[in-house]
TrEMBL record:
The keyword Lipoprotein does not apply. The keyword Transmembrane helix applies. It comes from Arachis hypogaea (Peanut). Residues 1-23 form the signal peptide. This is Uncharacterized protein.
């Protein structure tokens, strides 16, 4: 199924390092996922008269799938958005929404058990843990035969899904986290920011120069007005020219020879 998320934990035969791998036989795994989803839905419908929202119910699988475990839980979308969900093996953070949006959704958790090496086997590697995963589908109408698969979107909260998977080597629990995608801004946003900043700098410089010129012109006007207020001279026409003239001389002229 397209919305099924599968995690495979493996180690090299010569080391104890862990990694995640995907199945090479997509057709077989998709068929198995569809079969498990169908039995999980049947188990959910069987308990529909006494089921509780948020309660986990074990799916009744056929005998030929002995060793594989599956469980199903039904949630409201608004509860998943406000509180998230924690099912032991994995945790869904708050602010998680389904795509497309539905009123109720069901999550089918699956543990392949001893079937992991059959459907998710990688030559040259040995499994140290079973493959686990989950599927999400629309549960607004559980009696509907056409099941619509959903996708969980955690981009709003920015937190990844968290898996708690026990290690079969040392018995200690450890976690697998989905890497958070970095915030990469498109190049054109940087270009727009550079252009706006450049023209903004030019505008600031122009306004600064204009303000300096206005201040300087105002100072000159103040100096001229002060000079006119300190000394008042009369004007007389000499020919075609208008020239300032003092009204009264301050000192009387005296002949140097003393002749009167």
């Amino acid at each position: 199924m397209g919305s099924f998320i599968s995690f495979l934990i493996f180690t090299l035969c010569c080391s104890s390092s862990f990694s995640l791998v995907h199945s090479f036989d997509n057709t077989a795994s998709d068929s198995l996922n569809s079969l498990v989803q169908d039995f999980a839905l049947r188990s959910f419908i069987k308990h529909r008269h006494r089921h509780q929202t948020g309660a986990v119910y074990d799916a009744l699988l056929p005998r030929n799938l002995s060793g594989m475990n599956a469980s199903v839980v039904r949630l409201r979308s608004r509860r998943l958005w406000s509180k998230g969900a924690n099912f032991g093996y994995f945790r869904i953070p708050p602010k998680t929404a389904s795509i497309p949006h539905v009123k109720r959704l069901a999550i089918v958790y699956q543990d392949f058990g001893n079937w992991s090496s059959r459907y998710y086997n990688l030559p040259g590697y040995s499994l140290i843990s079973s493959v686990v995963g989950f599927m999400v589908f629309d549960a607004s109408n559980v009696t509907d035969t056409n099941v619509r698969n959903l996708i969980l979107n955690t981009m709003v909260c920015g937190l990844p899904l968290q898996w708690n998977i026990p290690s079969y080597r040392d018995g200690l629990p450890w976690r697998v986290l989905l890497q958070r995608a970095g915030k990469n801004r498109p190049w054109y946003l940087w270009l727009i920011g550079f252009v706006v900043g450049f023209f903004g700098l030019i505008a600031v410089v122009y306004v600064g120069v204009l303000c300096l010129r206005l201040v300087k012109a105002k100072r000159i006007q103040d100096m001229e007005r002060q000079a006119n207020e300190d000394l008042v001279l009369e004007s007389r026409w000499v020919g075609n020219s208008k020239m300032p003239s003092a009204a009264v001389t301050r000192t009387q002229p005296v002949l140097e020879s003393g002749v009167q």
